[in-house]
Design goal:
Blueprint: E1 4-10, H1 14-26, E2 30-35, H2 41-51, E3 57-59, H3 71-87, E4 93-98, E5 102-103, H4 107-116, E6 120-121, E7 125-126, H5 140-143, H6 154-166, E8 180-181, E9 187-189, H7 190-202, H8 204-211, H9 220-228, E10 234-235, E11 240-241, H10 258-262, E12 268-269, H11 277-288, H12 300-308, H13 321-324, E13 333-338, H14 342-356, E14 360-361, H15 382-387, H16 389-399, E15 404-409, H17 414-421, E16 426-433, H18 438-447, H19 457-480, E17 486-490, H20 495-506, H21 510-517
Parallel strand pairs: 1-2, 1-4, 2-3, 6-10, 11-12, 13-15, 13-16, 14-15, 16-17
Antiparallel strand pairs: 4-9, 5-12, 7-8
């Protein structure tokens, strides 16, 4: 059975470090601690005194002053790794943690998880080919030497970089290494870690290279593991659940995130807020528990993006210059059908095709597989369709030789609606209001990745009101836009009530509109 030696890097909160070590070792695992030398000596003395009698805890031979982005973090990790290998010969895996991490599974579950596959868990994406780095310098991290810290010595950091660029002092990457990048939070088998340590002792050239790279904790272990371990034995993922906001900052978890955290396919989570005392207590008890079942739904990241994005709805792109001067064409009418239940809008549009013979296309700005004619490549991706939306629709009008075109559009796409209403052509909008049962909303949440089959009921109970409000909010925004030609039909409306707005929207006789409104399967889920 797997036995885990946790590599704990910490720099504050001695009481939290003590509690973490006691919690992990009480369940039968081991802990190797590096406590930052920048922290007060009294704090470190408090930790050593409290854990002195715990044979499952060890400390690094020395403490280093660590700084974000520098080699010191890797050096501290290596010190803790060497201490763990020496003190805990029964450890089968080494797992990187920080003081902000907490288990979100039991020790029993974690060991069974690691026993399931003979593999290492570490993010390792190609440094140059992947888009893992979102902002800041890229290859400059490697090909130039960094002796100063960008956060604490910003002027010196960029001055040194500038002079190296001016003088052409770029260096070569070790020829036999393909540099990888990924999260620093890994879980590796003992033999892999032993191979890494042996490599460090043997390859001083590689050590010299990484010592002066920038943010080596995101490249050092990631590169060496990929170099030393066969690819089939590497799982390119971390076992610690973390979310980054769109500002690049790690998201903190609080007391009410307990159920969400347990349903994620990870063993630990970071960062747990210092204020989340109740969450820490519950997760602490959980680690020592036995016989606990963990249904995995894994919707955490998509749920965070959904909830955090509600306050940022608006126009993402300003109109391009070729769009502001283009038009669908005077004398043309664009008929937009908007409905949150896409299948209802598609059925309605199909009936319009059958009854009126109007050319119509489904959610062309929302579904990549919506059938479209070959328009020279402009129709090939959703990104291209949205970017060149007016040109795309103008080409559809021309291809089908029509002056009226029906399309489906999601209620959230208010920016597209506003753009089309601002065109010199005529635009009309038909909103189809549907009833939403809890069962339908649960299915919707699963279809869009906000929930899974195993999402706890407590999470669903909190999520459903937000989804329902979000749908109502989209409808309210459409009305607040005060579009001139806005029509509405309702699932709760009678055939007679829906006939008049349908006739006005399509510009057809009421007899034809009634035939469409009377479609008996239109609103069936």
């Amino acid at each position: 059975m797997a036995k885990i030696a946790y590599i704990l890097l910490c720099h504050k909160d001695p009481e939290g470090v003590i509690a973490q070590a006691e919690r992990l070792t009480a369940a039968g695992d081991f802990v190797s601690i590096h406590f930052d030398a920048r922290a007060p000596r009294a704090a470190f003395a408090r930790i050593r005194a409290a854990l002195a009698g715990n044979a499952s805890v060890c400390f690094t031979a020395r403490r280093l002053k660590c700084g974000w982005g520098g080699w010191s973090l890797v050096a501290a990790t290596l010190l803790a790794v060497r201490a763990a290998l020496e003190r805990f010969p029964r450890a089968t895996h080494l797992y990187m943690l920080s003081g902000d991490c907490m288990p979100i599974k039991s020790a029993e579950y974690a060991r069974a998880f690691l026993d399931r596959e003979e593999a290492d868990y570490i993010e390792s994406f190609d440094f140059f080919a992947s888009d893992w780095i979102k902002t800041g310098i890229r290859e400059e991290r490697l090909i130039y030497r960094h002796y100063f810290n960008e956060r604490t010595q910003k002027r010196l950091f960029y001055a040194a970089l500038d002079w190296q660029q001016r003088l052409g002092l770029a260096r070569r990457i070790p020829a036999d290494l393909q540099v990888q990048i990924g999260s620093q939070w890994w879980c590796l088998r003992r033999r892999t870690v032993e191979a890494v340590v042996e490599f460090c002792d043997r390859r001083r050239d590689v050590m010299r290279f990484f010592r002066t790279t920038w943010i080596p904790d995101e490249t050092f272990f990631q590169t060496l593991v990929r170099h030393l371990v066969p690819e089939p034995e590497i799982r390119t993922r971390t076992l610690s659940f973390l979310i980054f906001s769109d500002y690049g900052m790690p998201v903190s978890f609080y007391n009410d995130h307990y159920d969400l955290l347990l349903s994620q396919d990870y063993l630990f989570a970071r960062k747990i807020s210092p204020d989340a005392v109740e969450l820490k207590e519950r997760l602490g008890r959980l680690y020592a528990a036995t016989g606990v079942s963990f249904p995995i739904s894994n919707e955490g990241r998509s749920l965070f993006r959904f909830l955090s994005g509600r306050g940022r709805i608006g126009r993402r792109f300003a109109p391009r210059f070729w769009e502001t001067e283009s038009s669908l064409g005077r004398g043309r009418t664009l008929l937009m059908v908007t409905c949150k239940k896409w299948h209802v809008a598609k059925r309605l549009v199909e009936r319009v095709r059958q009854v009126c013979g109007l050319p119509a296309v489904d959610y062309l700005f929302n579904e990549a597989d919506t059938p479209l004619p070959d328009l020279g490549g402009i129709q090939s991706t959703l990104e291209k369709r949205t970017r060149h939306r007016r040109a795309l629709l103008r080409m559809l009008f021309d291809t089908w030789e029509t002056d009226r075109l029906v399309i489906c559009i999601d209620p959230a796409s208010l920016d597209l609606m506003q753009d089309f209403f601002g065109d010199r052509s005529e635009a009309r909008l038909l909103e189809v209001e549907c009833d939403f049962s809890d069962d339908y909303l649960i299915g919707h949440a699963r279809r869009v990745g906000l929930a899974g089959d195993q999402t706890p009921q407590e999470t669903m109970d909190r999520l459903l009101p937000t989804i329902r409000y979000d749908i109502r909010f989209e409808s309210d925004r459409i009305r607040e836009a005060e579009f001139e030609n806005l029509f509405c039909i309702r699932q709760s409306g009678s055939v007679a009530e829906n006939t008049v707005p349908l006739a006005g929207f399509l510009g057809i006789p009421e007899a034809q509109a009634r035939e469409i409104a009377a479609t008996d399967y239109l609103f069936v889920d």
